[in-house]
Design brief:
single chain; 655 residues; Serine Threonine Protein Phosphatase 5, Tetratricopeptide repeat; six-stranded antiparallel sheet; five-stranded antiparallel sheet
């Protein structure tokens, strides 16, 4: 079995993201809309009614939410404007319009701040995090889940706290799936489970048991997976929740298929399909057919594998056709309604001016007939041309799509190579127990990189920013990292300055740069620290990148040489080696320019170095892991909906 089940992780995110925004029944809300004259009351009722329709009729939910928001804005009703934007954001999120969703969530956040409502902020941060999860922006998702979690804890919202922790476990699972590292996921699930058991939240428990089963299966811990499925089954029987049996049997089938106990797997898959058919859940039926096709493929029963794959494909086509039919029926209803209105209007005019209307109709019909013939000929001609053009476009698109896939696959593989070259965080933690690396590439691969080396005499760490970003920058970063390894292992460079001198020569040689050749500036900016293991001292050398250090509440800077590593305009100078004594508790921060150069805030301006310097001083007393979380949060808040302009890298160590 090869599927990861991440589609159903998203199901659980959806399940909790629409958390109850309404407490009244549909009938009560409709009565409010009919019986109230106040726009604010109607607005609230429309928005709550949209929440009821959200899971069953997206179009009705959208119409109701926009009606509610319009009335709230008309009445200046802040609560309605906040909840209306949340509801429309969730609607966009559920239909795959994630950028639009976050636009509405951030609007809602402004209203929540005006209302000083932390409860609404919890809902909004959780929803933003969910949208990030759908887009596989795992680090961003964690940032906003953290925000929601802190507030939910302060407010004593135990149910929401448990839900957020479960979502964080899901994101940790998805983020670390390729590495098969599920420890963080289990830690989040365990924290969520304690809360769910304490408050007897059966819905959260059911979801958790299903998620545990999924992750235990992929961790190849089958007894634990089956134990969680049995707990989920027992709970669902007690609360008579047939919808739970759909996903619990699905996960049980998946687990038994992994164990190659195919009879049991088949039984549970068929049970899942039985309940899914009863509740008309075509998505789960389709997914289960696909899993059964994979199972029979594993069993080398290719006929059954083909049969179930065919069933899956037919059902997927049906789902698409059902949506198309629904849209056509809506268009038909609109057309027929407009037609009836036109017939009523025509009948009314006939009663008033029958003769004049008849002449007008005859003339209009004649002219209309001629115009119709011309129009049909024109449309047919355009259709033939368009058909011919579409054939060419389809052919070209197929080629482009194939090339695009090759490029994307190559870039994703390049990311794996680049991350393999970067130091292991555990190595850095071994040398500096209190440390962090905040690394957020702008694209899939990064032009920023960090480097680390430790031997019996010294510990060296560097933050570098290569020319360009994306693929060109990543290639340069790999060259830079390899050259640093080579220079240090050769052991000829004894100071940080000579290391950078040799790094410059290596880059110039690699790119065949000649003196005076200023058109090509392949190279990097870098800050390099070397801590002595035999004494309380360090060396620093920098090429355009300095280092901030904080001692006893005061911040200073070791300034770099104003030249890059590589060919550049101006006179080439030997890199300076700066030395200083260090004291226990000193904090050092290496950085590149991505954080300071990020546009954002209310006025869309750069963050700037002075502000970054003040921020580091403000948070320096906190543990380094907490500092990292704060930097991530502040960067995300500052950036908001703006594009990330560059790779971001900040390294913090406390000695």
């Amino acid at each position: 079995m090869t599927r990861t089940g991440q589609k159903w992780i998203i199901f659980f995110l959806l399940f909790v993201s629409i958390g109850s925004l309404q407490a009244e029944t549909k009938e009560q809300l409709l009565e409010k809309i009919r019986g109230s004259a106040a726009d604010s009351v109607k607005a609230a009722a429309y928005i709550d009614l949209a929440g009821i329709y959200l899971g069953s009729d997206v179009d009705s939910a959208r119409l109701l939410a926009f009606q509610g928001l319009e009335l709230a804005e008309k009445a200046g009703y802040l609560k309605g404007m906040c909840l209306g934007n949340i509801q429309i954001g969730i609607l966009n999120q559920n239909t795959g319009k994630y950028r639009d969703a976050n636009t509405y969530f951030f609007r809602a956040l402004k209203y929540a701040e005006s209302l000083n409502s932390d409860r609404y902020k919890v809902q909004i941060f959780n929803s933003i995090a969910n949208a990030c999860s759908y887009q596989k922006m795992w680090d961003q998702a964690f940032v906003y889940y953290d925000k929601a979690l802190v507030m939910a804890n302060i407010l004593g919202m135990q149910g929401k706290t448990g839900t957020i922790l479960m979502n964080m476990g899901n994101v940790a699972y998805a983020k670390n799936y390729a590495k098969k590292d599920f420890d963080l996921s289990f830690r989040y699930f365990d924290s969520s489970l304690k809360i769910a058991l304490a408050i007897h939240d059966t819905n959260l428990l059911s979801s958790l048991y299903g998620n545990y089963a999924l992750v235990y299966t992929d961790a190849n811990k089958m007894p634990e997976a089956l134990k969680m499925i049995e707990k989920g089954m027992e709970l669902s029987r007690l609360k008579n929740a047939e919808e739970d049996f759909i996903f619990l049997n699905y996960y049980a089938g998946r687990a038994y298929a992994h164990m190659k106990q195919y009879d049991k797997a088949t039984y549970h898959f068929e049970e899942s399909i039985k309940y899914a058919k009863k509740l008309d859940d075509k998505d789960y039926i389709s997914e289960t057919y696909l899993c059964m096709a994979e199972m029979y493929d594993d069993m080398k029963d290719y006929k059954k594998a083909y049969d179930y794959l065919l069933k899956h494909n037919i059902l997927e086509d049906t789902l698409i056709n059902d949506e198309t039919t629904r849209q056509l029926n809506e268009l038909k209803t609109i057309y027929e309604t407009e037609k009836k209105e036109q017939e009523i209007a025509l009948s009314h005019e006939k009663l008033q001016t029958q003769d004049a209307r008849l002449k007008t109709i005859l003339i209009s019909s004649a002219v209309g007939g001629v115009m119709l013939i011309i129009l049909v000929f024109f449309i047919y001609s355009r259709y033939q041309l368009k058909r011919k053009a579409n054939r060419k476009l389809e052919s070209a698109y197929g080629i482009i799509e194939e090339k695009q896939k090759d490029i994307t696959d190559s870039i994703n593989y390049a990311q794996k190579i680049q991350y393999a070259i970067l130091p292991n965080d555990e190595e850095i933690k071994h040398a500096f127990a209190d440390s962090f690396v905040f690394f957020r590439p702008r694209d899939v691969v990064s032009g920023d990189f960090y480097w680390f080396h430790s031997n019996e005499k010294q510990v060296m760490i560097a933050a570098a920013d290569c020319t360009g970003h994306g693929v060109p920058g990543a290639l340069m970063s790999m060259i830079g990292s390899s050259l640093l390894d080579q220079i240090v292992l050769e052991g000829k460079a004894t100071t940080t300055g000579t290391i950078l001198d040799q790094l410059r020569q290596g880059i110039k040689s690699a790119f065949k740069q000649k003196p005076g050749e200023n058109r090509r500036r392949d190279g990097m900016d870098i800050g390099l620290l070397s801590f002595s293991k035999t004494g309380n001292s360090l060396q620093f050398s920098g090429a355009n990148n300095g280092v901030y250090f904080i001692r006893e509440g005061a911040i200073s800077e070791l300034k770099p040489d104003k030249q890059p590593v590589g060919q550049h305009e101006g006179t080439e100078q030997t890199f300076t080696t700066q030395e200083m004594e260090v004291q226990a508790g000193d904090c050092f921060y290496l950085y590149t320019d991505g954080f300071a150069d990020q546009f954002g805030g209310e006025k869309g301006k750069k963050f700037k170095y002075a502000k970054l310097k003040d921020l580091l001083l403000e948070i320096s007393a906190k543990p380094m892991t907490e500092q990292k979380a704060l930097l991530e949060n502040i960067f995300s808040e500052w950036k908001g909906l703006n594009e990330q302009v560059d790779d971001v890298l900040i390294i913090g160590v406390r000695v």
